């Protein structure tokens, strides 16, 4: 092991480069854990796992910076599970703190999967949900080996005596920068006062900033700092594009991008707020384009179900609302109102679970579409980090409104777009070497034939329709509670009713003809004949009808006068029927 001075002129231990032939078997992990790793179909450890696990088994504190999706969770879970099995004691020896309930469930599920073959030697409990104190106290009374919680829930249970930390051996703070940003400082102070001396500390984060420095000084003694750059970013696998457009043209663009299949594969559409997400969903429904919305209004189980099914390729388009994302408020300390901003983050942390550019894993995303740009450049890079994962390529497209086009179309104006150009300028300034944002080069004139169709669809997406859609989905999701689990186990075919991409539009608002694109509208295409677009005259004459319905074939006979001319009035009798 080598020592060198860090940025603060303090000597630190740096881990040696892991050999290329490192395997999980070579890390001396418990054999039953290796079986769990094989079940996960992991072939070799990631760089952060190969470096962190040996150090963790030696008992060292670790502060690891590694990109989202690089295996940080397993990097601390595997050594903790190994030590729990070796200790063979019925006590709570590990506490994992995470910023959101979704991430807590993700961590607890992975821990249970890795310890699948360990039986009762490893017991994991997640207390980050909305259970009552009685339920949580019952869970903790069983003395689970590993407890996963948000700092607020952990601190609350420490204060009421339900969670005992006297035998704690491992403390993990996952996504440490977000934990500090969410306003959990007081809760962490309380936990730090109650943990015994000598507890091993894991601080995991995608960034190293001042928030993490504060957390390090609060918990760590002399941690090993691992700074691993995200190899996917170094590979420049994310192609970044920008399209300058007017406010209403955003909807015209997504109509063209999806209906003409210019975007293929799974896509995450990031919008500014919840109303905006439902406006986009209802607009896409006009053209029979299925999508689902993920936001903080939905119950936790519904949000997790949406993420799971998106990862299973059941949905191709996910609309995410990031208006509560903590990264959007992270630049507040530069302003005069920094203290009120922190207080707001503290009181509103339960409503911020919807930020999806961090923490939650989204698999095989081929495109990230920034329908609305985020509040700052940090959020932009975390958003586009959802694609180009695991060595795959990806695309990021951002729709930007120039200031001269802002507030020119009142029905589609969004206040968060006022600073689009400034945010884009900062994004370009912080691009790494070799990375750049290119102009998509979209010729808006070629979309003119589509304009009347998109305007017709956009007129039907009113504020009333958006409100009704939100209420409808909330009522629907509340009915799909955990009480139905037993029923669905017995009737698995009924699970089709739980799809989250069902139409939310107002009855009779969807116009079926809009899902078809006539050839004459395509750029460079030929004008199709009336028969090609399914045209049918409204006054089409019926020459005959089915006998089964007791209809008879009728013929209108022309009646000619003495001069030989046809008199149309004499073709009908007094009852309006044709004369025989």
TrEMBL record:
A motif (Q motif) lies at residues 22-50. GO terms for molecular function: ATP binding; hydrolase activity; RNA binding; RNA helicase activity. GO terms for biological process: gene expression; ribosome biogenesis. PROSITE patterns: HELICASE_ATP_BIND_1, HELICASE_CTER, Q_MOTIF. Residues 237-448 form the Helicase C-terminal domain. It comes from the Eukaryota. It is an enzyme of class 3 (hydrolase). ATP-binding RNA helicase involved in the biogenesis of 60S ribosomal subunits and is required for the normal formation of 25S and 5.8S rRNAs. This is RNA helicase. It comes from Lophiostoma macrostomum CBS 122681.
